[in-house]
Design goal:
CATH architecture of the domain at 19-31 and 138-401: Alpha-Beta Barrel
Low-confidence stretches: none
CATH topology of the domain at 19-31 and 138-401: TIM Barrel
Number of helices: 19
Largest sheet: 9 strands, parallel
Distance between the termini: 44 Å
Order of helices and strands: EHEHHEHEHHEEHHHEHEHEHHHHHHHH
Number of strands: 9
CATH class of the domain at 19-31 and 138-401: Alpha Beta
Structural class: alpha/beta
Length: about 500
């Protein structure tokens, strides 16, 4: 680390010279449930309490390309996120929120192109120039095959959609982050810190190579790439992990891809505290876990942060617990003095040793994946899946044997009084089904058929899919209908055990 400064290659100590002294991280609380108007009210509440960026959670049907009236959506509509099936529901989601005055992150992957199209059309209907939109679409399909499971299409077809979105946003949405390459879900599935970095950057290599192979110049799209990491419980290891990820990424971008623009080498990332570490037992303990994890993210130099709520092991966050999670960030930002120092633990012997170790282990994983021909073949051979499964199994065995302590679970246990939990409106599914019926009855059937045909034609050909998806969304084609046309061309993926 000798001689390195924050804001200079390889960015171990941070991507900006002043870090938080000149600008705090974005406080972006992840939220979404029920129908669009219910989530809209939560967003407005969180904005009133001081969040500086929106973060949208979508329900499982939306993530899987199914409308709320699909048979498999029964009982899942609005349950783990907001239900969005059409332009009408996206407009309700952001009613009264000017999209040129907020930054928005959308955690969506298989249907990312459709949700971004709906967001852009909503902005246009508000009179907002899409070129002014700021935010991030997750659009990270590879980690779905590795760790999460909300994939639809086979990997190679899904990669085509990802790179089409890269190309389209670079021209139409110059301030928008076209992907958030996620290690978060890899860690939640049970990986180690080094595996989180190694597999995430191996995914990044696959995306960057795919875009370059499609004719895009690396310095044209790479400055808009972003990342998403987990903040776990091992405080010093997590700080080192973020530093190692920045250094390794900068080196890869310069040496492997020949990037010249320093912004192409900067690993910009959002962090979320670890949901997998939250416990249903003694939920107030989760406040302590989240605070420690959030502080590690800040000391590690995150650009954006979500803090989990204490009740998330039991239910969707209540308004009170979501506010308290936000206050955790605000206390760190305004009362601790930590933001006054870039890379506060840089130079500490253990932190530097851990940074070197994680970088070396992550690089070794990338080299193994390179030897398999890259991340797509590695996924098809189930290499990252097996590695994560083995790590998760070891960790669970350690908890069950008592070798690893989880306070309130396998030590220091006690009977606890229940806490108030958020209750979802059980009628949301029926309401959304009726809204879809009305949309289908009022739109032009001819226009729908024409626009869906355009999507199928674009998918079978080589042109960028985004213009056809935008046109279909504008004609009130639904998310499920668009996804079904893509399924007809690309098929659906079934993993081999």
């Amino acid at each position: 680390m000798s001689g390195e400064r924050p804001g200079e290659f390889p960015f171990t100590r941070g991507i900006h010279p002043e870090m938080y002294r000149s600008r705090l991280w974005t406080m972006r609380q992840y939220a979404g449930f029920g129908a669009a108007e219910e989530s809209n009210q939560r967003y407005k509440y969180l904005l009133s309490q001081g969040i500086t960026g929106l973060s949208v959670a979508f329900d499982l049907p939306t993530q899987m390309g199914m409308d709320s009236d699909h048979p498999l959506a029964l009982g899942e509509t609005g349950r783990v996120g907001v239900a969005i099936s059409s332009l009408a529901s996206m407009e309700r989601l952001f009613e009264g929120i000017r999209l040129d005055q907020v930054t928005t992150s959308m955690t969506i992957n298989s249907t990312a192109a459709i949700l971004l199209a709906l967001y852009v059309l909503t902005a246009r209907r508000q009179g907002v120039d899409p070129a002014k939109l700021q935010g991030t679409i997750q659009n990270d399909i590879l980690k779905e095959y590795i760790a999460r499971g909300t994939y639809i299409y086979p990997p190679r077809a899904a990669m085509r959609i990802v790179t089409d979105l890269f190309a389209w946003t670079s021209g139409e949405l110059p301030l928008w982050n076209s992907i958030s390459i996620s290690g978060y879900h890899i860690r939640e599935a049970g990986s180690t810190a080094a595996q989180e970095v190694g597999f995430t950057l191996a995914n990044a290599i696959a995306y960057i190579q795919a875009a370059v192979s499609a004719g895009q110049a690396v310095d044209h799209f790479a400055p808009r790439l972003s990342f998403f990491f987990n903040a776990h419980n091992d405080f010093l290891e997590e700080i080192a992990k973020f530093r190692a990820a920045r250094r390794l990424y900068a080196t890869l971008m310069r040496e492997r891809f020949g990037a010249k623009n320093p912004k192409s080498m900067m690993l910009r990332f959002h962090t979320q505290t670890s949901g997998a570490t939250l416990t249903a037992q003694q939920p107030d303990n989760n406040l302590v876990r989240v605070t420690i994890q959030a502080l590690a993210a800040v000391l590690g130099g995150t650009q954006s942060l979500h803090t989990n709520s204490r009740d998330e092991a039991l239910a969707l966050p209540s308004e009170e617990s979501a506010r308290l999670a936000l206050r955790t960030q605000q206390v760190i930002a305004h009362e601790t003095g930590v933001p006054e120092v870039p890379d506060p633990l840089g130079g500490a012997w253990h932190v530097e040793q851990e940074t070197d170790r994680i970088e070396a282990e992550a690089r070794a994983l990338i080299e193994r994946i390179d030897g398999m021909g890259g991340m797509l073949p590695a996924i098809e051979q189930r290499f990252p899946q097996r590695e994560i499964e083995a790590s998760a199994y070891r960790q669970q065995r350690e908890i069950e044997s008592g070798e690893r302590t989880v306070v309130g679970v396998n030590r220091f246990t006690m009977e606890g009084a229940p806490i108030p939990l958020f209750q979802l409106d059980p009628a949301v599914g029926a309401r959304e089904m009726e809204r879809l019926r009305q949309i289908r009855a009022s739109r032009s059937a001819a226009a729908v058929a024409d626009r869906l045909g355009g999507i199928e034609s674009a998918a079978r050909g080589g042109e960028n899919l985004m213009p056809a998806i935008l046109a279909a969304c504008e004609a009130m084609c639904t998310l499920g209908e668009i996804s079904d046309r893509l399924r007809a061309v690309f098929g659906e993926y079934r993993e081999n055990a």
